[in-house]
């Protein structure tokens, strides 16, 4: 039962084939492999929409739409949001899908639509409904009266209907007022689209029919949206259409719209328990690269990545028992004996870090790579699978549970911020006004001369931080705390995902029935400073209680913090030798490298050349992945 539901997700990821001529090919995939099967080859790629970057906008001047999320990735196979269509508004539960573009709901005229959670859309009850009249820019029905759409998804599920315009409303949390937009009124559904409980799909991908593109095109929102999926067993969450001010410790990666039409990220390394997997970063750049897809449930790694990842996890878990998966048809890798409390999982399972090209790092909690074993209490299975023979790295919703993901299309980047998605609005407010540092008297101003070539993790003009000091108030009395005090640094290091030698207790004093402790956190042995972002993220983990201590330590409060910059040497003083060598090496290899680059580039261009499928295709659509 649970397994059957899981299967949904692959379906929604998926982009379709543009129809219209009878000769259109259909995407076929092998019958039902469920979420374990590998991705389909696309028939062709579509070029990114060049209009994307026209609008400059900032979150301050544009309203956004805040919307709740419902359902649960693993229980239902998807997350939905609520969208209202028409005047007066009719409500729908739509699967949020960054991997597709059109938004559609069942139409009252539908000849073949399943039973879903809400009544069908009734155009005749909406005073603002207007079907799109056949024109040169759309696919027309056979009578050449209306514009139609037709989407073929994986496993032969499909949706087709007429394109219409009506007023969309985004709910009572949204600042964005109701807006006219184009959506699909379905006349036919098949496969999972027919049998699922959700009414339809909300398309957030790149393409003219995407709800995001439509709102941006009209200058109503800035070119950005965010999703925050609720955690294991909780589900729900929140989303925002339009910009938000990113929390200070949000981690970013480039997302290249030219590389592929999907929301890709610049993944370079994966670390398990702090140790890098021995992989050439090129493995993350196969085919579509590393793609983030909200409509896919699990994650799929190319073969070498999967093998290295699985081996590293198994090595960290040699003390707990490996058991069979819930379904004999799948070779799931499962472990028992971890306990049923999700918040305790990080005591058993290692931290997994994804490191991006800019050196920034997204740390995954166990709930981001495990799913609950449906038959054995306290057992969990790896939610990351091998992507058949496909070299694409596909990251589904599991990877971003309890993570705010900001798709900043305007600046071609994607941001990640670990948070509790059930409390996103409150938390965004808090992080918008970061706590003032009571004990930061001698912070140095940022260096004014930005280096032209920056060292690894530090951005231009950023401070290099040699030590972080945190003052914490624990609601445990001094005598009770004292016997445990040596363990405290270890627990904190563990939760921060750093070596315990990096955390030192400096001071520890009674404070009524509480205890005040001062901790110093140092960079790892191999490096002599933190970047500003890393320091901010460590402080935020305390401020937001991501560091969870055993009950012995009571609850804590961060009452003060300080960051101590490295003594200011100029960037040149620190790096002149490196620069000198770099210049010499560059000169030596420059000329020959240019020749190779030229050849490589030329090949890439040939490989990436788009094959137009049908010159008359009016809309840029994504292809199945
Ligand atoms: C907002 O709408 C939801 C239903 O979507 C309703 O439950 C809630 O009470 C509404 N809140 C307000 C403040 O109107
Ligand atoms: C997130 O917040 C919800 C609602 O406040 C709470 O029930 C849940 O336990 C929280 N999750 C974590 C991991 O703290
Ligand atoms: C470091 O980060 C803080 C918080 O985001 C920011 O206010 C400050 O300007 C940053 N400093 C530098 C030098 O980048
Ligand atoms: C922690 O740091 C110490 C000293 O720097 C080192 O010997 C040890 O191997 C490190 N442990 C881990 C797990 O990295
Ligand atoms: C400390 O705890 C004791 C007993 O639990 C209580 O009587 C006392 O009022 C507390 N003191 C403070 C300062 O809270
Ligand atoms: C500390 O606070 C937590 C939650 O606020 C509470 O559950 C716990 O009992 C407190 N511990 C002590 C020793 O007061």
UniProtKB/TrEMBL annotation:
<keyword id="KW-0732">Signal</keyword>
<dbReference type="GO" id="GO:0004190">
    <property type="term" value="F:aspartic-type endopeptidase activity"/>
</dbReference>
<feature type="transmembrane region" description="Helical">
    <location>
        <begin position="576"/>
        <end position="600"/>
    </location>
</feature>
<keyword id="KW-1133">Transmembrane helix</keyword>
<dbReference type="Pfam" id="PF14543">
    <property type="entry name" value="TAXi_N"/>
</dbReference>
<dbReference type="InterPro" id="IPR021109">
    <property type="entry name" value="Peptidase_aspartic_dom_sf"/>
</dbReference>
<dbReference type="InterPro" id="IPR034161">
    <property type="entry name" value="Pepsin-like_plant"/>
</dbReference>
<feature type="signal peptide">
    <location>
        <begin position="1"/>
        <end position="20"/>
    </location>
</feature>
<keyword id="KW-0472">Membrane</keyword>
<feature type="region of interest" description="Disordered">
    <location>
        <begin position="432"/>
        <end position="456"/>
    </location>
</feature>
<feature type="active site">
    <location>
        <position position="293"/>
    </location>
</feature>
<keyword id="KW-0325">Glycoprotein</keyword>
<dbReference type="Pfam" id="PF23180">
    <property type="entry name" value="ALE2_N"/>
</dbReference>
<dbReference type="Pfam" id="PF14541">
    <property type="entry name" value="TAXi_C"/>
</dbReference>
<dbReference type="InterPro" id="IPR032799">
    <property type="entry name" value="TAXi_C"/>
</dbReference>
<keyword id="KW-0812">Transmembrane</keyword>
<dbReference type="GO" id="GO:0006508">
    <property type="term" value="P:proteolysis"/>
</dbReference>
<keyword id="KW-0064">Aspartyl protease</keyword>
<feature type="domain" description="Peptidase A1">
    <location>
        <begin position="79"/>
        <end position="417"/>
    </location>
</feature>
<dbReference type="InterPro" id="IPR057597">
    <property type="entry name" value="ALE2_N"/>
</dbReference>
<keyword id="KW-0645">Protease</keyword>
<protein>
    <recommendedName>
        <fullName>Peptidase A1 domain-containing protein</fullName>
    </recommendedName>
</protein>
<dbReference type="InterPro" id="IPR032861">
    <property type="entry name" value="TAXi_N"/>
</dbReference>
<feature type="active site">
    <location>
        <position position="97"/>
    </location>
</feature>
<dbReference type="InterPro" id="IPR001969">
    <property type="entry name" value="Aspartic_peptidase_AS"/>
</dbReference>
<dbReference type="InterPro" id="IPR001461">
    <property type="entry name" value="Aspartic_peptidase_A1"/>
</dbReference>
<comment type="similarity">
    <text>Belongs to the peptidase A1 family.</text>
</comment>
<keyword id="KW-0378">Hydrolase</keyword>
<dbReference type="InterPro" id="IPR033121">
    <property type="entry name" value="PEPTIDASE_A1"/>
</dbReference>
